[in-house]
Design brief:
Elements (H helix, E strand, L loop, with lengths): L1 H17 L1 E2 L2 H8 L6 H10 L1 H8 L2 E2 L2 E4 L6 H10 L4 E5 L2 H5 L3 H9 L6 E4 L13 E7 L2 H7 L1 H14 E12 L7 H4 L4 H10 L3 E4 L27 E7 L1
Parallel strand pairs: 3-4, 3-6, 4-5, 6-7
Antiparallel strand pairs: 1-2, 7-9, 8-9
Helix pairs in contact: 8-9
């Protein structure tokens, strides 16, 4: 039995040795590339993608999934972060793609570029992604809409994502912090503890919920994220989860 444990330990060490964590300076340079839009770059100051992904432990070569990706701002960030040996799954439901100019935006973003991105145009309850196949999942500023609309649907979403995440993989939920008891559905926010409770109910382990990377002291959580005075700089939580 001891030899089996030793072999497992050696294998784990070899995997760790082959992992290549993202280099913040390298990713910063990649995000400054001239072939990335100015509109995307303007969002970097508030969203702090390099600091967030470094904190979450994303590695080059991983398979990452951007859930409810919308136009794909985070999809492109992930694409540059995981590199040519990695892969990014860009998930959007057919209904979300049909709203506004989302489909046109996604098509323009991917056309002839970001060759490590694979579109997943399917609903969250039918992802069509192999179980235990994804290293890293992120959903950015979306979970509040699902949870506030229907907590049971939020549990279904989390269950589907947990099924495709590898054991030991990382899932991140980023969202606008809301005050308990407020009309968070109208404000497009949610209390952090609600997200923590939902993740635990779905069977995730909370690795950390106290990151200050996206803390904004000027936001008292009473305004919509779209309020002009906030200039998109809301106070946000990051839940770092694992399976």
């Amino acid at each position: 039995m001891k030899s089996i444990f030793s072999l497992v330990a050696v294998a784990a060490m070899l995997v760790g040795a082959n992992a290549l964590a993202i280099e913040p300076a390298k990713l910063t340079q990649a995000l400054a590339s001239s072939d990335r839009s100015d509109a995307d770059k303007e969002l970097d100051a508030g969203r702090k993608p390099v600091q967030v992904l470094d904190y979450l432990g994303l590695e080059e070569g991983m398979t990452a999934m951007d859930v409810m990706a919308g136009g794909g701002w985070y999809t492109e960030v992930l694409s540059r972060a995981v590199g040519p040996n990695g892969k990014v799954l860009m998930q959007n439901s057919p209904a979300s793609l049909a709203r506004g100019t989302t489909e046109e935006t996604v098509t323009a973003r991917l056309s002839g570029r970001l060759n490590n991105v694979e579109r997943v145009n399917r609903d969250l309850n039918d992802l069509g992604v192999a179980a235990d196949s994804v290293d890293f999942i992120i959903t950015n500023l979306n979970f509040h809409d699902v949870y506030n609309g229907n907590p049971e649907a939020a549990q279904g979403m989390l269950a589907s994502l947990k099924a495709v995440l590898k054991p030991g993989g990382t899932m991140a939920i980023i969202d606008h912090i809301g005050n308990p008891g407020a009309d968070n559905a109208a404000l497009h926010r949610m209390p952090k503890q609600d997200a923590v409770n939902a993740a635990r109910q779905a069977g995730f382990t909370i690795v950390d919920s106290d990151s200050q990377v996206l803390h904004s002291p000027n936001d008292d959580h009473t305004l919509s994220p779209f309020a002009e005075s906030l200039n998109r700089n809301t106070d946000r939580f990051i839940l770092k989860l694992t399976k």
